[in-house]
Write a structure and sequence with these properties.
elongated, Serine Threonine Protein Phosphatase 5, Tetratricopeptide repeat
Length: 292
């Protein structure tokens, strides 16, 4: 399922800004913390990938303690905002695990989960959100984690889990049931079953599966091609050219007929996946933008 990553980037940025006061407080503390002069310089220059390499080098050469949780978080957020979620997630998860501040740990776990959403690692994101949802330090953070878990369930395309999650949202923060009912129904569409239906329709009448899936041009092409080969086969039989009829009917006709069935199934599957993707995008926006 494809998704628009703009709102995910906005969530990452919002979480970064929410944790900014904590980051500044840590930066002003404890002179005994390790220095990261090169790492900081790379981040100031916007070289997030190089900063990630430098952070990994420091930890390999000097152990995990060579990078403070704050530094790991900064590297992770820089990578996330530069569109490198796979590289960012380990830094954010390590930062959350290493910090002694439970509030910052919650924020950083949520940030790591959002980055995992962008990387399409939905089960891992659900796990992080559920952990904050169960053990977060305050009710507002736990409620936000619940919203994000629902977002992960929706983007994973799991209609049953998404329905249960949306139903469990607190009444004051859940989107109106009437607004999500149709979207949840669409999210529960099974593309595999839809593909079978499309294949059966194209088997009954070449091009019917493609046409009913919103591809009338493909449907007309399949109907014309298969109809033309069938007519040619019949004419050759009437003319007594049984060898040519066999060649056209079995060699070409059967091949294109089976291809028509396959294309009809693919058209219905693609249409189902498009419907689910559109429903997921709309449902995510309702969950994220709903009343707090």
């Amino acid at each position: 399922m494809r998704m628009n990553g703009g709102w995910i980037r906005s969530l990452v940025l919002a979480l970064a800004l929410a944790a900014a006061p904590a980051r500044l407080a840590v930066a002003d503390q404890a002179p005994q913390q390790p220095r990261h002069d090169l790492l900081s310089a790379l981040l100031r220059l916007g070289l997030s990938h190089e900063a990630g390499w430098e952070a990994r080098r420091l930890t390999v050469e000097n152990g995990p303690e060579a990078i403070t949780p704050e530094a790991a978080y900064r590297v992770g957020m820089a990578l996330a905002l530069d569109g490198r979620p796979d590289e960012a997630a380990p830094f954010l998860a390590d930062a959350a695990a290493a910090t002694d501040d439970p509030r910052r740990a919650d924020q950083w776990q949520l940030a790591a989960g959002v980055v995992l959403l962008r990387a399409r690692a939905f089960p891992h994101a659900v796990h992080l959100f559920a952990r904050v949802e169960d053990f977060g330090v305050d009710a507002a953070t736990r409620a936000f984690a619940t919203r994000l878990r629902c977002v992960a369930e929706v983007l994973a395309g799991d209609g049953v889990a998404a329905r249960a999650c949306v139903a469990a949202l607190p009444a004051g923060s859940a989107p109106p049931p009437a607004a999500v009912a149709e979207l949840l129904d669409t999210l529960e569409i099974n593309p595999h079953r839809r593909a079978i239906a499309g294949g059966v329709l194209s088997a009954l009448l070449p091009g019917l599966g493609q046409s009913t899936a919103g591809r009338p041009g493909d449907g007309l092409l399949a109907l014309g091609l298969n109809g033309g080969l069938a007519a040619a086969t019949v004419l050759l039989i009437v003319d007594g050219s049984y060898g040519s009829a066999t060649l056209v009917g079995l060699g070409l006709g059967l091949r294109y007929y089976l291809g028509n069935i396959q294309n009809g199934a693919a058209a219905w599957r693609a249409d189902a996946e498009r419907q689910k993707a559109r429903a997921a995008e709309r449902l995510v926006r309702l969950i994220v933008d709903g009343p707090r």
